[in-house]
Amino acid sequence: MSQEAPRGLLLVISSPSGAGKTTLARQLAEEFSREFGLRFSVSFTTRSPRPGEVEGRDYCFVSDARFDEMIAARQFAEWAVVHGHRYGTSIATIEQSLHEGTDCLFDIDFQGGHQIRRQWPDDSVLCFILPPSMEELERRLRRRATEAPEVIERRLAMACKELEHYGEYDYLVVNDDLSRAYDQLRSIYIAAHCARTRREAVAQALLAQAASRRPSVR
Ligand code: ADP
Ligand code: 5GP
């Protein structure tokens, strides 16, 4: 019987741009960093930093040439072109999580979610954040004002394509009221920890203890 610590859980959060996934993901990583060792997977990207973004915290910002080198060296678990830039998840981050038994949180698009699910079907939980309406999505993107108007238009145009992929996700959270959406996300995360497949070792250890204490009743 295996007494190994469970492997880390890979929690993927995706949504159309502006639905609130980064806000929710950051809050979750902050709350559960101690209890479950939850860490935010810092992606590599070829896009430029936005004002206020910090290298190594929000992204590792790299040149196109460096990204090419990383692809050639097979350093990405997945990568994709999103809104005209390349983004990728380091394979080292995932392996560290799985082996250490600490959880990892991914703020990545549906292409990345698909890749993670395909490679780690038993370790991944996929959650899609929905905006309450397309009007509100547009309002949030414009209010955030981190991109130029033409970039915002491109992101809005892409929203439909991203929404079409909701069916590949395990859970859907509507981010209307932020605190309610957060409650739902944290409940999904906690429930994922209680999945039978992740708790099997505990149940098996109890069965072994029980069997060694008394003969089983038939
Ligand atoms: P994403 O990572 O999905 O692009 P963000 O987390 O950056 O989205 O959120 C987009 C904008 O909407 C941010 O300015 C954020 O503060 C705001 N926001 C997030 N959730 C809500 C909410 N429930 N109600 C109102 N504004 C929100
Ligand atoms: P932003 O430029 O707004 O930070 O991110 C744009 C999109 O790229 C978002 O949908 C975000 O989830 C996605 N993204 C960020 N990092 C990665 C990654 O490593 N892989 C993939 N596939 N998508 C990513």
Walk me through what this model shows.
The chain is an alpha/beta fold and 218 residues long. It has a domain at 11-41 and 101-212: P-loop containing nucleotide triphosphate hydrolases (Rossmann fold), CATH 3.40.50. It has helices at residues 21-32, 64-72, 91-100, 110-119, 134-144, 149-163, 178-193, 196-213; strands at 10-14, 39-40, 43-45, 59-61, 76-82, 85-90, 104-107, 124-130, 171-174. It has a 5-stranded parallel beta sheet with strand order 2-7-1-8-9, with helices on both faces. Strand 5 and strand 6 (85-90) form a beta hairpin. The protein is globular, with a radius of gyration of 20 Å. The chain starts with 9 loop residues before the first strand and ends in a 5-residue tail after the last helix. The model has no long low-confidence stretch (mean pLDDT 93). Bound molecules: adenosine-5'-diphosphate and guanosine-5'-monophosphate. Adenosine-5'-diphosphate binds next to helix 1, helix 5 and helix 7.
